[in-house]
Amino acid sequence: MLVKKIEDVPAAQVQMEGAKNVTVRVLFGPDDNAPTFAMRLFEIDAGGHTPFHAHPYEHEVVVLEGEVILVSQSEEVPLEIGHVALVPPDEKHNFRNPSNSRPARMLCFVPVQYQK
Amino acid sequence: MLVKKIEDVPAAQVQMEGAKNVTVRVLFGPDDNAPTFAMRLFEIDAGGHTPFHAHPYEHEVVVLEGEVILVSQSEEVPLEIGHVALVPPDEKHNFRNPSNSRPARMLCFVPVQYQK
Predict the structure, then answer these.
(1) Of A25, A32, B13, B90, most Cβ neighbours within 10 A?
(2) What is the pTM of this model?
(3) Regarding beta strands A20-28 and A93-96, do their DSSP bridges make them parallel or antiparallel, or are they unpaired?
């Protein structure tokens, strides 16, 4: 078995176009021989956001700290600790941190073949 | 997209042989058309534990509340908030709550075909 402390995993800036003030830590992925799905921790700084985009795989999301707004083409849903979200494949979405001061943290799982 | 509050999802007692004082909430699974993996919230009461067993698929685990001991055939590792764990396929394991008074909560993800 493999146990990690989230804080021990290095965070990398998300460089995708449309991302602002977001870092990612790959907690379990191909390098850990995760068989089916990858676990990533995203930290979105105050005012930051992920790209508004779609892709052919799902997200399963858990908020660990702060608040994030999950945005789709038809709605905006605030998520905080105690909420979980499933974004189906091919649905346009992003996550943004509406706070002026607090970072937000969320786990986001994807099928492992899409975790580079 | 599909958003849930963990508390709104009903908890069911885990009836498997070897489980003691454990409930499960299926947050995302086959009924939600989760494509690849299922998200479940396990609550282990003080002194409770899951069965010590193995199966041909992995677990990815996140502790949300309290402390759990992840037990394998060779070691016992305490997990608390900030820890994540990957139990590979076919590795014997269980989770137990060592507290006399506090419940423990953890998310446990599995490939969706194994979520009944």
Answers:
(1) A25
(2) 0.97
(3) unpaired
Total beta-carbon pairs less than 8 A apart between chain A and chain B: 114
The whole-angstrom separation of Cα A62 and Cα B39 is 10
Taking residue A32's Cβ as centre, other Cβ atoms within 10 Å add up to 17
Select the residue of A58, A70, A84 nearest B36 (Cβ to Cβ): A58
Residues A47 and A49: their CA atoms lie apart, in Å, by 7
Question: How confident is the model over A26-50, as pLDDT tens digits?
Answer: 999 999 999 999 999 999 999 999 9
- Nearest C-alpha neighbor of A10 from the set A22, A34, A26, A21: A26
Q: CA dihedral defined by B55, A107, B71, B52, rounded to 10 degrees?
A: -30
CATH 2.60.120.10: does it fit domain A16-105? yes
B91 interfacial to chain A (CB closer than 8 Å): yes
Residue A116 pLDDT exceeds 90: no
The per-residue pLDDT for range B20-39, each reduced to its tens digit, is 999 999 999 999 999 999 99
